[in-house]
Design goal:
Oligomer: single chain
Order of helices and strands: HH
Helix content: over 70%
Number of strands: 0
Structural class: mainly alpha
Number of helices: 2
Number of domains: 1
Distance between the termini: 91 Å
Shape: rod-shaped
Strand content: under 5%
Length: 85
């Protein structure tokens, strides 16, 4: 790694087209490294978001079941009231 850095610094110090190519390769390397880190963090966050979304969906389904049960109870009460009247 140290030899690569020295080679890179010597190439830039010498100037000319080789220096421009080395600078561009360095920038591309940094961008690739950043992209890999970004993709890794996106995958980690994606799993967290999926678990949160699944939890919200489960709570929504439980809420819907409770609403249906409440409406059925109201129907039973209305039938009983209607029978008494």
């Amino acid at each position: 790694m140290e030899k690569l850095f020295i080679l890179f610094a010597d190439g830039i110090a010498s100037g000319g087209p080789a220096a421009i190519i080395l600078i561009l390769l360095g920038v591309i390397g940094i961008l690739v490294w950043d992209r890999v880190g970004l993709i890794k963090s996106m995958k980690e966050n994606s799993t967290l978001y999926r678990s949160d979304i699944n939890r919200v969906i489960d709570k929504y389904q439980e809420g819907q079941i409770n609403v249906i049960q409440a409406l059925n109870d109201i129907k039973l009460i209305l039938v009983k009231v209607e029978a008494k009247v």
